[in-house]
Amino acid sequence: MIQKIQRIFIVQRDLLAGVRNTALEVRDIIETISLCMEPLTAVVCQECISVCCINKHSSYDRSDLIFMTALGSDIPEDNTGIDDSAPCRFLGRNGCILERSTRPYRCTWFFCTPLLDYAMEKSGPSGYRKLIGMLQRITEKRTSMIYDFETVLLKNPHPGGWDIKPNNLLFY
Ligand code: SF4
Ligand code: SF4
């Protein structure tokens, strides 16, 4: 799947320019929100007795692959040799070793209740609203980026076939 998506970005370079630009915007917002998140996770996650970073969450789905390819980022291969319930392969001594924008997206939008509570306590209502607003912006832009990619794929079938089907579910 990774190589197929990379090939589409090469062949349809011009048509996917907008997708690449949106991916850059999404990356910038994610790295901005990361600056708000790090002081929170540094406190809450250190005390966690049920760490959510298990290996099941370390795989990149289709949308992650489109996002990462648009950015030209290296994409880690799925490592099937590690048990799903084992600690995530990217979990280091001080938390996740990946830049936030290169983590599977599920890792960015997941907030456990203690983390949300602490964010509210530390940021206050207006800071908390700002945080939630940034998360919504990330999701909206990312969704439109994926939609634009799938539209290009749907409307520009490759003569030899892309060997990857557009995600038609997005269009219903
Ligand atoms: S995000 Fe929540 S569940 Fe996950 S490690 Fe941090 S405190 Fe634990
Ligand atoms: S945040 Fe990092 S360590 Fe945690 S599950 Fe995601 S990729 Fe793994």
Helix content: 55-70%
| Largest sheet composition | 2 strands, antiparallel
Gross geometry: globular
- Strand portion: under 5%
The total domain count is 1
Distance between the termini: 23 Å
Characteristic key phrases:
two-stranded antiparallel ribbon, 56% helix, globular, mainly alpha, 2% strand, 172 residues, binds iron/sulfur cluster
Record the SSE blueprint:
Blueprint: H1 2-11, H2 17-44, H3 62-71, E1 91-92, E2 95-96, H4 105-109, H5 113-155
Helix pairs in contact: 1-3, 2-3, 2-5
Bound molecules: iron/sulfur cluster (2 copies).
The site of one iron/sulfur cluster (SF4) has 11 residues, from loops.
Account of the protein in words:
The protein has 172 residues and is mainly α. It has one domain (2-162). Helices cover 56% and strands 2% of the residues. It has a two-stranded antiparallel ribbon with strand order 1-2. The model has no long low-confidence stretch (mean pLDDT 89). One iron/sulfur cluster binds next to loops. One iron/sulfur cluster binds next to helix 2 and helix 5.
